[in-house]
Write a structure and sequence with these properties.
By secondary structure, the chain is an alpha/beta fold. 43% of the residues lie in helices and 16% in strands. A hairpin with an 8-residue loop joins strand 10 and strand 11 (274-275).
Length: 474
């Protein structure tokens, strides 16, 4: 009797400990039936103990095709798995993702009599990552990049050349110019096309979270930290796109630079380095020289990333591509909306050519989509179909100023401000004028011109590309 009381007391203590620990614990017997299922595991899997206990795993859980429960593998094959990510579904079809440690339980003679897993829940983290990551869904290729203007065609040709190597690429361009489209096309044209493509917007998450996402975490590194690979490990052999790289803090930029130079990554809280083979494509939505001067980007990281630098011109600098882009968007939304719009009217065409398109190609697509939402069975997009805010901006511009010339003036007169340009436009105009004059003075010699301007040769070459000027052979 006393022995039974002692066993009951011990079982109570055991159950109490299991329910208080912060990991999920699931134990099955030699027949695959669940015999221990603690409170944390029930929370992770959104299941009640009554539904799980004394039932075979396959009676209550569903696993992805060609994948087996690591717990059953431990029982049936004696496999030990550590820090393995596993995704499966509970009895109501809810997706569960855990990092699990599974191992067989043996008796004194080495015979397997059960199996046990200890799990940490990463379902929410997986959902966060999916919201900010594009993995394997690289839809775009160079064939889908629209634009026949000489400056844009030059960028496409340079991007195709960059696809032949694994050098880092820095894509420079305003918001909405299609930087990720170029990044996906480079990946799909490269020898890494069959490997992962992962994209992370560096501005989307705080530093405290993005560090662990990029570099991974070691269990116990901080409260709640689990053993989890970062994006560098997940993108191994493939391509990692870091969008808005200038949004990273100086600390993370320094850590990123180390990974690029040494081709090794160290998880947060760990002391071991892990070898990685990842091609980095980074994007920035401002002049990188401005970002460096204003301490938003480390100079050494810029030089490391810009082995190949691609400057994507804004739409206002390649307006000849507008008709082709509009037809592409009309075709896209005809298919989505089950419509048969054929073209845009001449009035809309003139309006589009006069507009400045600060939101670039993305804004043009939104305007076309908005216009087609206002149509019924008309064959053409007319001015009345355009979104109200767009018509209002266009009409104000027409009333306030005459159309701007498509080319920059040959001579710049700082005193002749006629009110037609904002400060940034006027500064860009003067920059182009002054760079042209200094280059002309040195007969196109970039190195000599850069020395007179007090900037690096690479910085001058960036400005030459930015303003569509031709670089003379030295």
């Amino acid at each position: 009797m006393a022995e039974m009381m002692e066993e009951k007391r011990f079982r109570k203590i055991f159950e109490y400990i299991l329910d208080e620990i912060n990991e999920g614990v699931h134990v099955i017997d030699e027949n695959g039936k669940s015999i221990i299922y603690n409170r944390k595991m029930a929370e992770i899997e959104s299941m009640s103990r009554d539904v799980v206990l004394n039932k075979n795993i396959h009676e209550v859980f569903q696993f992805l095709e060609n994948e087996e429960s690591t717990l059953l593998s431990a029982l049936q094959e004696g496999l030990v798995t550590k820090n393995v990510k596993q995704t499966y579904f509970n009895d109501k079809g809810k997706e569960i993702t855990i990092v699990t440690n599974s191992f067989p339980i043996t008796d004194g003679d080495g015979e397997i009599i059960g199996a046990m897993e200890i799990a940490n829940d990463i379902t929410k983290m997986e959902q966060i990552l999916r919201g900010n990551i594009l993995k394997g869904d690289t839809r775009f290729t160079f064939d889908e990049i629209i634009g026949q203007s000489p400056a844009f065609q030059e960028v496409i040709e340079n991007a195709k050349r960059a696809s032949r190597t694994s050098s880092s690429v820095l894509i420079i361009g305003e918001t909405g110019t299609g930087k990720e489209l170029f990044a996906q096309s480079i990946h799909n044209e490269s020898s890494r096309a069959a490997e992962p493509f992962i994209a992370q917007n560096c501005a989307a998450l705080p530093d405290t979270l993005i560090e662990g996402i990029l570099f991974g975490t070691k269990r116990g590194a901080f409260t709640g930290a689990i053993e989890r690979p970062g994006l560098f490990e997940l993108a191994n052999k493939g391509t990692l796109l870091l969008d808005e790289i200038n949004s990273l803090s100086p600390h993370l930029q320094a850590k990123l630079l180390r990974v690029l130079q040494e081709k090794k990554v160290r998880r947060v809280g760990d002391t071991k380095d892990i070898d990685v083979d990842v091609r980095i494509i980074a994007t920035i939505n401002e002049d990188p020289i401005d970002a460096i001067n204003e301490n938003r980007m480390r100079k050494d990281l810029y030089y490391r990333l810009s082995v190949v630098a691609l400057y994507i011109p804004p739409l206002r600098e390649r307006k000849s591509d507008i008709p082709q882009l509009v037809q592409k968007f009309i075709h896209k939304y005809n298919r989505l909306f089950q419509m048969s719009v054929e073209s845009m009217s001449e009035e809309v065409r003139r309006c589009f050519f006069d507009y400045e398109w600060l939101g670039n190609v993305r804004e043009l697509e939104h305007v076309v989509e908005g216009a087609m939402n206002m149509m019924t069975d008309e064959p053409q997009i007319t001015f009345s179909h355009l979104p109200y805010q767009f018509r209002r901006k266009s009409q104000w511009k027409e009333e306030q100023q005459a159309p701007q010339p498509n080319v920059m003036p040959v001579q710049f007169d700082a005193a002749s401000d006629n009110g037609k340009m904002d400060l940034k436009s006027k500064m860009d105009e003067f920059e182009q004028y002054y760079v042209e004059k200094v280059l002309e003075k040195h007969k196109g010699n970039v190195s000599k011109a850069a020395r007179e301007l007090g900037i690096s040769r690479q910085s001058l070459q960036y400005r030459i590309r930015k303003h569509g000027m031709r670089e003379t052979e030295e």
